Amino acid sequence: MFKKWPIFLLLLFSFHSYSQTLTLKDAIERGVSNYGTIKAKNKYLAASKETVKQTKTDYLPNVTLSAQQDYGTVNGQNGPLYGFGGYGVASSGLPLPQQNWNAAFGALYLVNVNWEVFSFGRIRERINLSKAESERSAKDLDQETFQQKIKIAAAYLNLLASQRLIVSQEKNLERATVFHNIAAARVKNGLLAGVDSTLAYAEVSRAVIALNQLKDRAKDENNKLVALMGVAIEDFVLDSSFVRRVPKAILSNAVTLNPVLQYYKSRVDAGKQSLKLYKKDYYPTVNLIGIYQTRGSGFSSEYAANQHAFSQNYLDGIRPDRQNYLFGIGLTWNLTSIARTAKKVTVQQYTVSGLQDEYDVVDQQLKTQLDAAEAKIKFALDNYNEAPKQVRAARQAYLQKTTLYKNGLTNLVDVTQALYALNRAEIDSDIIYTNVWQSLLMKAAASGDFDLFISEF
After folding, report:
1. For the chain, what is the domain count?
2. CATH code assigned at 250
3. Under a CB-based contact definition with an 8 Å cutoff, are residues 332 and 287 in contact?
4. What is the pTM assigned to this prediction?
5. Helix (H) or strand (E) holding 408
6. Which residue of 12, 97, 157, 200 is surrounded by the most CB atoms within 10 Å?
7. Is there a single domain that holds both residue 78 and residue 204?
8. Residue 296 in 3-state DSSP?
9. DSSP-assigned beta bridge partners for residue 72
C-alpha cells in the first residue's frame, strides 16, 4: 500500500495545479496592468502634465548672454547697406580715403533681457489650454481603463458560459451513451429491432459533435480573454461560484457620469479653451527690454588721425573698455494678423460645435443602452425564476420516458424527444444564469459605475 503513495501524491498535486481558478477581479487587475493601450495612455498623461509645467515657464523673461572675440579690419564707408539674408559685417570705423588692411582683435560682451510683460492674457490662456489638454488625457485614460474592465468582464462571462455549456453537454453525452447501452442490450437480447441501437448511437454521435463545437467556441472565448489580459496563452479555469445567485445591486438606480462621457466632455472643454487662446491673438504684446554691453578693441581712440595707432596683441583687443546700456518698453501689434486670427477663431468654433455634437451622440447612446439594460435585467430575472422549473419538468419527463422504454412501454422517438428537451433546458438554464450577470454588467457599462458590478465579487 505504501508504494502507491508517490503516485497518489503526484495525482493530487496535478489536480491541485489544474484546479487553481482565475477570479474575475484577478483577470481585471492583470488586464488593466498589462494592456498596452492603457500603458501608452499613462505615458501620454505624464507627458501632458509635464507640458503644463513647461507652459508655466512662458512667464519667465528671455535672458541672453553673448560673448564674441574677433580679428579683422575696421574700414568704414558712407552709403546704404542691407544685410540680405542675415549676412553682413558689423565692422565700424572712419570712412578713410583709401582701403587699408590694418587688423586687430576686438570683442563684444552683452546681456539682453526681453520680457513679454503684458500679453492681454495670452500666456494665462496657454497655461489653461495645457491644463485642459492634460485633463483630457486623464479622462482618456479613465475611459480606456473603464472600457477595458467592461471588456474583460464580458469576455470572462462569455468564457464562463461556454465552460458551463460544456459541462451540460458532457452530461447529455453521458445520458446518450447510457441510453445507447440500454438499447444495444435490448437489441442483443432480441427485445428490440436493430434500428433502435443504430439510432441511439446516432444520438451519441450528435452529442459528441455538439460537445466538440462547444469546446471550439470555448477556446475562442478563452483566447479573447487572453488577448484582453495581455498575458501568455493559457487555458483558464474560471470561478463559477457566483453564477447561480442574483446580484444584490441588480435593482440599484445609482447613475454616475460615465467615464466615456467625461472624456468627450473634456474634448469639448479643451476645444473651448483653444478658442479662448485664439481670440487673444487679436491683441498686441507689450515687452520690456534691457541690454547691457561692453566692447573691447585693439584700435586706439587716435586711430582716426593716426592709422598706426592700433595693436595686434590679443589681450589688448579682448579687454573691455567701453560700456553701454539700454532700457525700454515696446508694443508689437501685427495688424494683418487680425484677419488671420478671425479665420482661426471661425475654424475653432466649428470644431467645438462638432465636438459638442459628438458628445450629444454618445450621451444619447448611453441613455439608450441604460434603458435597454434595465429591460434586459427585468427579462433576465423573469427567466431566472422560470429556468429551474423547466429543468425539473424536463428531467422528470426524461426519467419517465427512459423507465417506460426499459419496460417496452414507449418507443425510441419519445425518449429522444425527452433527451432533447432535457438538454435544451439545461443549456437554457446555464445561459439564463449568466445573462443575469451580463445584464448587470451592461447596466454598469451604460451608467458608468463599474463598482456596481465588481462590488458583487
Report:
1. 2
2. 1.20.1600.10
3. yes
4. 0.80
5. none
6. 200
7. no
8. strand
9. 104
